Amino acid sequence: MTMIEHQRQQEEKFRKLIEEEEIRMLRKEMIPRAQLMPLFDRPFFPQRSTRPLTIPRDPSFHSINSKSWRCMSSCDSYSFQRLIHQSSKPIK
């Protein structure tokens, strides 16, 4: 055995030892442990938000008519596309 081969074997053994130790540490960290119970000795007082309230809007459940929808067929698969009108308002 040459000196280079002996050195490579030593390095391989050292690398293997390091890997085994890392695996052992990771397995030790993965053991589930109980979480501490939170302290309820102080009551919780929620703070009022500084954001403005949202303004409710009624949903528009209008009926689907043939003018607003069209059927596109290609290769025996059907897909419906909604025609976008200029008068529709964007959602904020």
Verbal overview:
The radius of gyration is 34 Å and the shape is elongated. It is of the alpha+beta class and 92 residues long. The protein has a two-stranded antiparallel sheet with strand order 1-2. Helix content is 29%, strand content 13%. The chain has one helix and two strands; from the N terminus they run αββ. The mean pLDDT is 77.
SSE topology:
Blueprint: H1 3-29, E1 69-74, E2 77-82
Antiparallel strand pairs: 1-2
Organism: Aquilegia coerulea (Rocky mountain columbine)
Subcellular location: Cytoplasm, Cytoskeleton
Keywords: Cytoplasm, Cytoskeleton, Microtubule
The helix content is 25-40%
Give the total of beta strands: 2
In sequence order, what are the helices and strands, one letter per element?
HEE
Uncertain spans, ≥5 residues at pLDDT below 50? none
Mean pLDDT: 77
Major sheet characteristics: 2 strands, antiparallel
Class by helix and strand content? alpha+beta
Number of helices: 1
Q: What general outline do the C-alpha atoms trace?
A: elongated
Beta content: 5-15%
State the end-to-end CA separation: 77 Å
Enumerate the strands of the largest sheet in spatial order, edge to edge or round the barrel.
Answer: 1-2
Q: Nearest-angstrom radius of gyration? A: 34 Å
Keywords:
alpha+beta; elongated; 1 helix; two-stranded antiparallel ribbon
Summed up:
Helix content is 29%, strand content 13%. By secondary structure, it is α+β, with helices and mostly antiparallel strands.
